[in-house]
Specification:
Length: about 150
């Protein structure tokens, strides 16, 4: 049984295809499938690849996979102090720039904001306050639920 394929001289990426190599790979795949021991010895590397591809994938990684891999590669755990310092610096800069903008332009904003807000004595103000409290509470609760589900998954 000869397993041949019709193919063009170029693949999808435009790279040239060597027809003899292609046929050698196909012969090695066929020889491995049929467990032929008298196959061409030059096809050994292709047969090894075909054999490896036929093996089932592991069902999961071991629990200490990351630490074993890091030890194997000779690396230490990542140090994120620089990134954390930069993040704190950027947040501080954002807060300071917000305070400067509020100080410079706050007098122009304040009348517009007060005109939109309902009077503090009206029942609508209480409804808005309850809506904001509900949003904050639900956000916090969903975050706690997400953290709990994430910790149970590990």
């Amino acid at each position: 049984m000869n397993n041949t394929h019709d193919f063009e001289d170029r693949d999808i990426d435009g790279h040239s295809i060597d027809g003899r190599e292609w046929q050698a790979q196909e012969r090695a795949l066929q020889a491995e499938r049929l467990h032929l021991s008298d196959a061409d010895p030059r096809l050994g590397s292709y047969r090894a690849i075909a054999r490896a591809l036929r093996q089932p994938l592991p069902h999961g990684l071991p629990g200490d996979f990351a630490s074993r891999l890091a030890a194997r590669l000779g690396r230490t755990p990542l140090d994120t102090r620089v990134e954390q310092g930069l993040l704190r610096g950027l947040l501080t800069l954002l807060a300071l720039s917000g305070a400067v903008v509020a100080a410079m332009y706050g007098q122009a904003w304040l009348p517009a904001i007060l005109a939109v807000l309902p009077a503090s004595g009206s029942p609508n103000a209480m409804h808005w306050l309850l809506a904001v409290a509900a949003c904050v509470g639900m956000s916090w609760a969903f975050d706690q639920l997400r953290k709990g589900m994430h910790s149970h998954a590990n």
